[in-house]
């Protein structure tokens, strides 16, 4: 116990120390990579050591910096406090950083100023892990600022895109608005409570509603809404995710947005306990619903691979916030599950995008096509990611989305509020639109016909594929073994969010929470028995295998396939080998041109319909909506600030009108 | 007068936001960011201010006797302000550096021209 | 033992074999009846079976631009997922896998055959396929909204102020309170569902994705031989599954207490529903354009479903 108490702070310090050392010693590539890898790995091991006491045994680990323990029940020092909620997020974060670090070794190879890159990368990692583990609200703000700072620098470091600098600037301005609001809120809290410790605040603030704390809550809520890219704060995030290097986009999109989610849950569930007021529930779910809808519809209209993914992040964050705003245990479970899943599949998809950019040098959907023949492994990883995000069973997105629908509709029927039925319907429809936009990517990038200039592209190197494989495996495993996963990771976190007495007691001394009479939110029983995907999966595999055998062993078809199943390039006589989906090579022999694709017996031409060509019927009906919305995404930093200001005003007014 | 501090700090924040929304020159946008920061800083300092208080420093005699002879203002907000000023300065420096890069790559620092990422 | 039971359920009754046979029956019936409506004699009832075996025996040509594995796996994926959906739909009182949340599971499982078709059409590398999958996806988006509304209305009706998503529980509710269709507030939802079925199955006038005369069957353009046969089979199975879902949701609760007669009755009701919503609409309409299809579903059909949901919400 004594030893383990130091682990959280060591996990953060290791990363910052690594950043420092790389800046000094990082001239040599091997030393630099070794240092970065070692720092992230050590931090990961330290956090994994915390699983047993925190998640399995239900302890809360607290640590006072410099031994400044509370005096006379008043916390003055800075404390680190690890409960299940924080640790779940921290573990998720460090996993993402570890994978991104490994990916960077391949992806960033040969770029300039890599020393600075890894320094900033480790600072980003340290700050995000610190954000999840800290027990001090001002410390949260500091960590948020370090995250913003290093994220901006990392985004701007992409020298290959001229627009990178523009994205970085907008990101900086937007995040600064958010963090200034948070800081103002923190000042107001201090004014009222004279403490910054989360545990102590959690005893003072609930039930102590006056104008100052309400204003503080509104401001902090806004800060975290900005951080989690809610509409209308999302635009500059999307820009930054588009232009950052892919290994960073993965972190920004998959991980950094989760800071806002964690902050929202921490603030509204534990510190202010305001989540059980129905007006806040309506505010958060409305926010989430609007966000998921606008995010996905904007994604459908994009024709840049990474920009599309970035809009999907916005949309998925909408799911997470909406579910968290339901304030039921199933809803929060779904929310946290989806937060974890989002990191996994969105990270995977960004890594796939990175592999495509690495190979072809472009991320424009209109300029790609047919890459599955050249990059079969990336294609399989992408398929898994796309199915996960669209929520097809048995992948992980289905589990979390199922929980969210279930929770939202349960809320609707138990409260009799039609509004929550609208939330459910929107969530379900957004899901099919998500599928649609991934069909678009799938067809435009991986299937269809190969472009002539991409005939010589190569599969991503092993060091880039390795993180992709791990994430794909995690996507499948968290979908199939959802029960074990939610018992170990999500269940304790949800319990911690609803019952904070241990959190307070561990920090402020035994019996402190009772002294102030902190109420626990009523937690309803968790039920996870919707179906048994494992049985289903086994059956699926059996029948699928049987059917595969039938199809593939039919000799008559196979001979002809091998003869005529050449790749597209062979039609033009440029190559004589073709590689199929599994990476096997066939000799193409003497393909007849009319077998390329069906052209009524005519000679085949290059005719790839992809990218912007798809979904005409949909876009036609929605063209006014798109005109309006794309006009709003004007790209001007002034406009984005104006939306933010309007939204801030609206949220503050809502709070004052409905939450008093 | 402490109330004036609060009012002014919120006015500063609002002014900063106004600058962010209306000024097309990116340098001015960064200045707006700075104004907003200082508004927040003023708010924090004011939060720790006690009417008639002195700097929160123990003199030797006070340390020996164990009771402060004068009335202190709260020290924590001052530490917070210091941190916040440092962060604000870093952010402004970073933003200005980025503006220089924008000028180099785009040839302009007009916010209406710097919008290639849109739609 | 439990594995054997699951295997039996998945492969024979109500899974693959039963679905295939019933699907062939419905498809044959559809063709026969539409022929009679058009004053033709029409093919024999078993014509889909003959078609299937004839196609399966034909040569399979894989186009050179295609991604071979994805192209070949797509029909299998479609077939397997369809064979499993039936396991989740109770045949009156009999249900193979009873679970808490069948409606959402089914909603998602039903999208998988569509996704398989899209992957197949996309992997074929044909421009006709590309246009086809684009339309297929828009069709899916179109009917999803009313479909979701119908499912939620049914769930609300059966659950009251409790969350009931299980088809089995919905069936039990109907056994006590009479079929959904007998409650007047559910009639708009039933109509909406009847209009969703042809789009889901892909028959005229909602067959824009596979419009033979415009885009040479779209995603199926490049397919030949056994894979094409499997896709055609999938369409037949989809017919049975969608009508079966309609039966389970709106006409459930009829118990003869005996699995065999239940199954026969179920198939008979499915036949009636097929003739009602697939054959009749097919016979009297011409193909829509894709943008009109989208409009149609997001306005009229959605409105029907929404009316039901609102009525149910006020306890009617």
Describe this structure in words.
- With 660 residues, chain A is mainly α.
- Chain A has a domain at 542-612.
- Helices cover 70% and strands 2% of the residues of chain A.
- Chain A has helices spanning 2-5, 7-25, 29-49, 51-56, 84-107, 114-133, 137-156, 164-193, 198-204, 211-227, 235-243, 246-271, 278-300, 305-324, 329-360, 376-390, 396-415, 418-446, 462-480, 482-498, 501-508, 512-516, 533-552, 555-564, 568-571, 616-621, 623-632, 637-658, and strands spanning 61-64, 79-82, 577-579, 585-587.
- In chain A, the strands form 2 sheets. A two-stranded antiparallel sheet of chain A has the order 1-2.
- Chain A is globular and about 90 Å long.
- The relative contact order of chain A is 0.10.
- With 119 residues, chain B is mainly alpha-helical.
- Chain C has 316 residues and is mainly alpha-helical.
- Chain C has one domain.
- In chain C, 71% of the residues lie in helices and 0% in strands.
- Chain C has 12 helices and no strands.
- Chain C has helices spanning 2-11, 16-37, 47-57, 68-88, 102-123, 127-159, 167-177, 187-201, 212-215, 225-250, 259-284, 290-313.
- The longest helix of chain C has 33 residues, at 127-159.
- Chain C starts with a helix and ends with a helix.
- Chains in contact: A-B, A-C.
Rg of chain C over CA atoms, rounded to whole Å, is: 19 Å
Detail the poorly predicted runs of chain C: none
Mean pLDDT of chain C: 82
Largest interface: A-C, 86 and 90 residues
Please give the alpha-carbon distance between the first and last residues of chain A: 43 Å
So what's the oligomer here? heterotrimer
What's the number of helices of chain C? 12
Low-confidence stretches of chain A: 555-590
Summarize the helix and strand pattern of chain C as letters.
HHHHHHHHHHHH
Strand element count of chain C: 0
Q: Please estimate the helix content of chain C.
A: over 70%
How does the overall form of chain C come out from the CA principal axes? globular
Percent of residues in β-strands of chain C: under 5%
Alpha carbon gyration radius of chain A: 25 Å
Q: Main beta sheet of chain A, described?
A: 2 strands, antiparallel
Number of helices of chain A: 28
Q: Helix/strand-derived class of chain C?
A: mainly alpha
The profile of the biggest β sheet of chain C is: none
């Amino acid at each position: 116990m004594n030893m383990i108490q130091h682990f959280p702070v060591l996990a953060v310090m290791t990363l910052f120390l690594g950043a420092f050392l790389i800046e000094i010693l990082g001239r040599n590539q091997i030393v630099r990579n070794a240092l970065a890898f070692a720092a992230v790995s050590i931090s990961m091991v330290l956090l994994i050591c915390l699983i047993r006491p925190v998640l399995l045994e239900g302890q809360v680990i607290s640590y006072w910096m410099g031994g400044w323990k509370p005096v006379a029940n008043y916390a003055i020092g800075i404390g680190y406090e690890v409960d299940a909620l924080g640790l779940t997020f921290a573990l998720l974060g460090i996993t993402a950083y570890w994978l991104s670090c490994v990916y960077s070794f391949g992806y960033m190879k040969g770029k300039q100023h890599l020393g600075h890159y890894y320094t900033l990368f480790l600072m980003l990692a340290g700050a995000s892990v610190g954000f999840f583990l800290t027990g001090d609200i001002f410390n949260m703000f500091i960590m948020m600022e370090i995250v913003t700072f290093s994220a901006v620098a990392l985004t701007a470091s992409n020298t290959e895109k001229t627009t990178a600098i523009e994205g970085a600037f907008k990101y900086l301005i937007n995040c600064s608005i958010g963090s200034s609001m948070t800081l103002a809120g923190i000042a107001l809290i201090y004014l009222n409570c004279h403490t910054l410790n989360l545990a102590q605040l959690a005893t003072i603030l609930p039930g102590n509603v006056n104008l100052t704390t309400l204003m503080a809550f509104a401001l902090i809520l806004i800060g975290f809404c900005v951080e989690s890219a809610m509409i209308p704060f999302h635009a500059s995030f999307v820009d930054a995710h588009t232009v950052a290097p892919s290994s960073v986009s993965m972190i920004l999109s998959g991980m950094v947005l989760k800071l806002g989610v964690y902050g929202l849950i921490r603030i509204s569930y534990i510190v202010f306990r305001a989540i059980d007021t129905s007006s806040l529930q309506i505010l958060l779910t409305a926010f989430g619903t609007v966000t998921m809808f606008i995010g996905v519809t904007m994604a459908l209209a994009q024709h840049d691979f990474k920009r599309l993914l970035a809009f999907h992040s916005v949309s998925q964050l909408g799911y997470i916030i909406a579910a968290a705003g339901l304030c039921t245990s199933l809803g929060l479970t779904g929310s946290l599950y989806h937060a974890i899943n989002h990191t996994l599949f969105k990270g995977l998809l960004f890594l796939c995008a990175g592999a495509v950019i690495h190979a072809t040098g472009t991320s424009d959907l209109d300029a790609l096509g047919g890459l599955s023949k050249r990059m079969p492994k990336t294609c399989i990883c992408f398929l898994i990611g796309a199915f996960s995000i669209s929520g097809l069973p048995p992948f992980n997105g289905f589990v979390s989305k199922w929980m969210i629908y279930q929770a939202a509709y349960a809320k609707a029927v138990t409260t009799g509020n039609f509004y929550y039925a609208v939330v459910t319907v929107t969530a379900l429809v957004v899901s099919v639109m998500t599928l649609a936009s991934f069909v678009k990517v799938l067809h435009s990038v991986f299937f269809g016909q190969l472009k002539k200039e991409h005939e010589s592209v190569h599969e991503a190197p092993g060091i880039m594929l390795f993180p992709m494989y791990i994430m794909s495996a995690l996507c499948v495993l968290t979908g199939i073994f959802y029960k074990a996963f939610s018992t170990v990771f999500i269940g304790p976190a949800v319990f911690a969010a609803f019952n904070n007495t241990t959190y307070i007691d561990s920090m402020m001394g035994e019996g402190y929470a009772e002294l102030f009479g902190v109420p626990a939110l009523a937690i309803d029983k968790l039920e996870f028995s919707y179906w048994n995907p494992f049985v289903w999966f086994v059956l699926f595999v059996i029948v699928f295998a049987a059917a595969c055998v039938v199809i593939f062993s039919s000799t008559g078809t196979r001979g002809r396939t091998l003869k005529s199943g050449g790749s597209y390039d062979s039609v033009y006589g440029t190559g004589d080998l073709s590689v199929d989906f599994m990476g096997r090579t066939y000799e193409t022999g003497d393909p007849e041109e009319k077998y390329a694709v069906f052209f009524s017996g005519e000679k085949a031409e290059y005719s790839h319909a992809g990218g912007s060509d798809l979904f005409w019927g949909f876009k036609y009906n929605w063209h006014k909506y798109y005109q309006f919305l794309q006009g709003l995404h004007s790209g001007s930093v002034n406009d984005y600030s104006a939306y933010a200001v309007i939204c801030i005003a609206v949220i503050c007014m809502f709070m004052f009108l409905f939450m008093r | 007068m402490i109330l004036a501090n609060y009012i002014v700090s919120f006015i500063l924040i609002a002014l900063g936001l106004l600058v962010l929304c209306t000024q097309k020159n990116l340098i001015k946008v960064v200045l707006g960011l700075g104004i907003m920061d200082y508004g927040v800083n003023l708010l924090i300092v004011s939060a720790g201010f006690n009417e008639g208080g002195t700097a929160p420093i123990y003199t030797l005699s006070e340390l020996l006797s164990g009771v402060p002879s004068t009335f202190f203002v709260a020290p924590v907000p001052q530490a917070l302000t210091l941190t916040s000023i440092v962060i604000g300065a870093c952010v402004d420096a970073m933003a200005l550096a980025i503006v220089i890069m924008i000028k180099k790559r785009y040839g302009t620092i007009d916010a209406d021209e710097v919008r290639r990422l849109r739609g | 033992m439990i594995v054997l039971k699951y295997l039996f359920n998945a492969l024979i009754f109500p899974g693959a074999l039963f679905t295939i046979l019933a699907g062939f029956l419905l498809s044959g019936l559809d063709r026969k009846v539409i022929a009679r409506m058009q004053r033709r004699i029409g093919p024999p009832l078993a014509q889909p079976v003959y078609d299937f075996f004839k196609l399966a025996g034909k040569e399979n040509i894989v186009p050179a631009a295609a991604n071979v594995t994805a192209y070949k796996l797509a029909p299998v994926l479609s077939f397997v997922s369809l064979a499993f959906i039936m396991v989740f739909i109770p045949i009156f009182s009999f249900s193979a896998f009873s679970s808490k949340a069948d409606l959402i599971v089914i909603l998602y499982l039903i999208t998988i055959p569509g996704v398989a078709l899209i992957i197949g059409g996309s992997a074929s590398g044909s421009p006709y396929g590309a246009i086809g999958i684009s339309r297929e996806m828009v069709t899916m988006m179109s009917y999803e909204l009313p479909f979701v509304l119908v499912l939620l209305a049914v769930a609300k009706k059966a659950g009251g102020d409790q969350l009931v998503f299980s088809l089995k529980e919905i069936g039990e509710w109907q056994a006590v309170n009479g079929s959904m269709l007998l409650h007047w507030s559910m009639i708009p939802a039933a109509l909406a569902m009847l209009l969703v079925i042809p789009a889901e199955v892909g028959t005229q006038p909602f067959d824009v994705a596979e419009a033979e005369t415009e885009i040479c069957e779209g995603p199926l353009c490049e397919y030949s031989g056994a894979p094409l046969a499997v896709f055609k089979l999938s369409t037949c199975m989809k017919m049975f599954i969608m009508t079966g879902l309609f039966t389970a949701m709106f006409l459930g609760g009829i118990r003869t207490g005996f699995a065999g007669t239940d199954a026969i009755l179920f198939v008979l009701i499915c036949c009636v529903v097929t003739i009602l919503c697939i054959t009749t609409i097919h016979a009297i309409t011409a193909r829509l354009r894709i943008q009109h299809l989208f409009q149609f579903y997001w306005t009229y059909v959605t409105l029907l479903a929404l009316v039901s949901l609102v009525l149910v919400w006020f306890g009617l």
